[in-house]
Amino acid sequence: MCDLQSRIEELEEEFQLLDPRERLELLLDYAARLPELPEEFRDAADRELHRVPECQTPVFLWLTFDDGAVLHAEVAPEAPTVQGFVSLLRELIAGCSPEQVAQIPQDLLHRVGLVEALGMVRSRGLHAILHRVRAMAGQQQSAAAKSQS
Predict the structure, then answer these.
(1) Beta-bridge partners for 64
(2) H or E element: which one contains 36?
(3) What is the pTM of this model?
(4) The CATH number of the domain where 69 resides is what?
(5) Interval 74-123: pLDDT, tens
């Protein structure tokens, strides 16, 4: 079972104890944990549909819900802070339902102090990534509701 609220609270505590420079270092630790994109998504015909265009860094996201949420991503290697945020999101939502993922707080970046650490301009792309993940979960939720009716 996914206790997303507890996970968010733990994340807030972990990041808020740190100064902005240390938050960036922790984000780099998360970046190192982002797995490579599975082969099945690398050559997908609809690959461009998975790009987050609002992010200056090339970011491609796939969200699956076989046994709970799994976020698959490809992020340009020259953007470790973006990789770190995607990895953080991946760990945060692992095993959660579409309903839970769709309810991730929109102010997550503020809650963990990343806007302060990164600045507003760099945070815009991360906000777009968060919005995309929430939207994909909402679409999955709607599709599941339609198939049950």
Answers:
(1) 70
(2) none
(3) 0.93
(4) 3.90.1010.10
(5) 999 999 999 999 999 999 999 999 999 999 999 999 999 999 999 888 89
